[in-house]
């Protein structure tokens, strides 16, 4: 899980203008490991991108990483208001 956290943060930090406000929290449910990404309100558009292309690309990379166990990974982009 630490490798996946580092991967997400490595991808996101260069995209935002305020990398110090990036937070990644992990919640574990029955079926998923949910990674909740929070960025500064002015950076949310940079992470989502036009028509969600940047968010889709980030999710494609994250979902391709193999995890131990039957749980799937889910990346949520949370509005940091």
Features:
single chain; 81 residues; alpha+beta; GMP Synthetase, Chain A, domain 3; 3-stranded mixed beta sheet; 3 helices
> What is the CATH first-level class name?
Alpha Beta
- The name of the CATH topology is GMP Synthetase, Chain A, domain 3
What's the tally of helices? Answer: 3
In helices, the fraction of residues equals 25-40%
Provide the succession of SSEs.
HEEHHE
| Uncertain residue ranges | none
Main β-sheet: number of strands, strand sense, barrel status?
A: 3 strands, mixed
Tell me the domain tally.
1
- What fraction of residues sit in β-strands? 25-35%
Protein name: RNA-binding protein KhpA
Function: A probable RNA chaperone. Forms a complex with KhpB which binds to cellular RNA and controls its expression. Plays a role in peptidoglycan (PG) homeostasis and cell length regulation.
Subunit structure: Forms a complex with KhpB.
Subcellular location: Cytoplasm
């Amino acid at each position: 899980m630490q490798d996946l956290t580092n991967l997400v943060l490595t991808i996101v930090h260069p995209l935002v203008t305020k990398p110090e406000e990036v937070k990644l929290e992990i919640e574990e449910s029955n079926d998923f490991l949910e990674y909740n990404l929070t960025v500064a309100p002015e950076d949310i558009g940079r992470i989502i991108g036009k028509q969600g292309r940047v968010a889709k690309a980030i999710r494609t990379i994250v979902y391709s990483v193999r995890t131990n166990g039957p749980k799937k990974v889910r990346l949520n982009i949370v509005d940091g208001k």
